[in-house]
Amino acid sequence: MDDSLPTSTYQKRIFSLLLNLLIKKNLFISFCIPTALFFLLLSFSFSLSLSLSLSLSLCALFSLYCCSLSLSLSLSLSLYLSIYLSIYLIPFIIYLSIYLSIYLSISFCSLPIYLSIYLSIYLSICFYVICALSFNIFNFPTKMFSTLLKYSRKLLFHVSAKTP
């Protein structure tokens, strides 16, 4: 066996052979992309549920004990703030999904670093665009805020009419 071959050249040959094998056998499309998408969805759902539950409980506690609001108004305010917080956590979700898909593609799929970085950035941008188009993220906070203001005004008028 010839040991005079440098390690970097040997690794480049192994990476190119693996990449050719992945592309020729369609393993790249059937394994790497669905696994990276799974980790993107996992990171998105985990951070979304965590931010929703934390901000919902904190805002409800704050509005009940510090602002002395009614229970329904404090819950609606905390729900609005939690959804608003989770929407603005999307850049953090993108960074987390980029990191997870880079780690996944390097460790499990044996892809080169530059190819895995390109693939993960592309997938995370596609995922963000799909989420923005399907959930209409850009108009959602303003619509929810106007609806919340409308119902809170009705509730305040109702409460002020009943108080002597």
Automatic annotation (TrEMBL):
Protein origin, superkingdom: Eukaryota
Annotated TM spans: 27-48, 54-80, 92-115, 121-140
Keyword terms: Membrane, Transmembrane, Transmembrane helix
Stated name of the protein: Uncharacterized protein
Organism: Acanthosepion pharaonis
Lineage of the organism: Eukaryota, Metazoa, Spiralia, Lophotrochozoa, Mollusca
